[in-house]
C-alpha cells in the first residue's frame, strides 16, 4: 500500500470536503480488535480488556471508504489513544 504524499493528502481532504461537507478532514480513523486463536492452557500477552486474545487493526479510510493507511499489531490492554500513538499512522501524520 503506497504511503500518501503531500499532494495525495490535499486531494483526499478536498474529496472529503466535497462529498461530506466536512472540510480539512483527510479521512475516518478507527481501530478494531481482531480475535486470535490462543493454544489451550497457554498464557498470552495478547489478552485485551474484553477478555480474549486479539491484536488491533487501525485503519484510516478516505471519503469513499477506501483504506488509505493500515496499521496492525498492537496488543494488550491499550487505550485507543495508546494504540494510535504507537501506530505507524500517527508517525506518518506527525
Descriptive overview:
Pfam families: DDE_Tnp_4 (PF13359). GO terms for molecular function: metal ion binding. The chain is of the alpha+beta class and 94 residues long. The chain has three helices and three strands, in the order αβββαα. A three-stranded antiparallel β-sheet has the order 1-2-3, with helices on one face. The longest helix is centred in the first third of the chain and has 15 residues, at 6-20. The radius of gyration is 16 Å and the shape is elongated.
Brief descriptors of the model:
single chain; 94 residues; alpha+beta; three-stranded antiparallel β-sheet; 3 helices; 3 strands; 30% helix; 26% strand; elongated; metal-binding; DDE Tnp4 domain-containing protein; metal ion binding; HARBI1_dom
Low-confidence stretches: none
Q: Provide mean pLDDT, rounded.
A: 87
Major β-sheet, in short? 3 strands, antiparallel
- Give the domain tally: 1
Distance between the termini: 19 Å
- Estimate the helix proportion, in percent: 25-40%
Given the structure, what is the number of helices?
A: 3
Short précis:
The chain is of the alpha+beta class. The chain has helices spanning 6-20, 80-86, 88-93; strands spanning 28-35, 54-61, 67-74.
List the helices and strands and how they pair.
Blueprint: H1 6-20, E1 28-35, E2 54-61, E3 67-74, H2 80-86, H3 88-93
Antiparallel strand pairs: 1-2, 2-3
Cofactor: a divalent metal cation
Protein name: DDE Tnp4 domain-containing protein
Keywords: Metal-binding
